[in-house]
Amino acid sequence: MLIAESQTMPFDAALPLQSGASIRGYSLSYETYGTLNADKSNAVLVCHALNASHHVAGVYADQPNNLGWWDNMIGPGKPLDTDRFFVIGVNNLGSCFGSTGPMHVNPDTGLVYGADFPVVTVEDWVNAQARLLDALGIEQLAAVMGGSLGGMQALSWTLQYPERVKHAVVVASAPNLNAENIAFNEVARRAIVTDPDFHNGHFYAHGVVPKRGLRIARMIGHITYLSDDVMNEKFGRELRNAVNSDTGYKYSTQDVEFQIESYLRYQGDKFSEYFDANTYLLITRALDYFDPARAFGGDLSKALERAICKFLLVSFTTDWRFSPARSREIVKGLIDNRRDVSYAEIDAPHGHDAFLLDDARYLNVVRAYFGQIANSLGDAA
């Protein structure tokens, strides 16, 4: 088993943000796996999605059950092989898993940021990641990779720093959110901000956590990550506790009757124990704002002119949150610019969560792609 070690990199210089604000005195948490080769050509940056972190693979020596969120993808002999690549996982600014975020102290005021933490975007995260790579002495990435929101970051890397990326692997992602996705995010945010314990984002000072809002936000999100087929197969209309009546129902408006209700409440309860409410607001808003074509009148092909690297895009047929049609938009934009792009559309039943799961076809596509990258590095890899 790969043993992971969390590291922290401090930055004193202010980071200008797209909002016009800036942040200084911040730090980024990160982990690395594998060995950087002599010419530093085998580095792969892995970008995380909404509720993940820099802990992408392996376990900590003192936490053997804390498995990295993409451990099936990354490690010795795995699709992203750490025997051949130097893999970097970075926790984004505004997160609640180590990097500077709303729970930390603002060096300019001496007070916890709370709701005063500046709005961050995908582009801001990429700029911060670039500074980390500078500090590690890595000028160019063999690849940048991510799923969902992580895929948006990977795509943004190819546009913000085209010369620094040789390959981009974008999984279950999109060039922007559609109105339905923005709507889901807004409902989840409203659940949080209307929780009486939210206190306009300064709940830390009150010694409380808006757990009710976080629970609902997670329940909404979790529904969108699963496909209808998976929910029906896993839960169907199964009741939690059978009762002695002709129908089996309790006929209650508030009790938990169905197994799917119990499952969602469990997921919500668990999420509310470890995730920060202000972080949830920040990250979902970053999702909403991402739209590289906006500066080009909505012309994605025009926006993608800046990308010069090779691409692998993967989508999943039952993913209705980031549907295959959205990946195909990116593919078309790249083909319009005569870029080198490979595309795999996997017929998987798992919905959006498929990018995290063990589908042999999906994993083999990624394995083959990284195998080609490793072979192109030659002896240096």
From TrEMBL:
InterPro entries on file: AB_hydrolase_1 (IPR000073), AB_hydrolase_fold (IPR029058), HAT_MetX-like (IPR008220)
Ranges for domain AB hydrolase-1: 42-357
Pathway recorded for this protein: Amino-acid biosynthesis; L-methionine biosynthesis via de novo pathway; O-succinyl-L-homoserine from L-homoserine: step 1/1
Gene Ontology biological-process annotations: homoserine metabolic process; methionine biosynthetic process
Sites annotated Important for acyl-CoA specificity: 321
Catalytic activity as recorded in UniProt: L-homoserine + succinyl-CoA = O-succinyl-L-homoserine + CoA
Gene3D superfamilies given in the database record: 1.10.1740.110, alpha/beta hydrolase (3.40.50.1820)
Keywords: Acyltransferase, Amino-acid biosynthesis, Cytoplasm, Methionine biosynthesis, Transferase
Record-listed substrate binding positions: 218, 353
Oligomer status and interactors: Homodimer.
Family: Belongs to the AB hydrolase superfamily. MetX family.
Record HAMAP family: MetX_acyltransf
Protein name, per record: Homoserine O-succinyltransferase
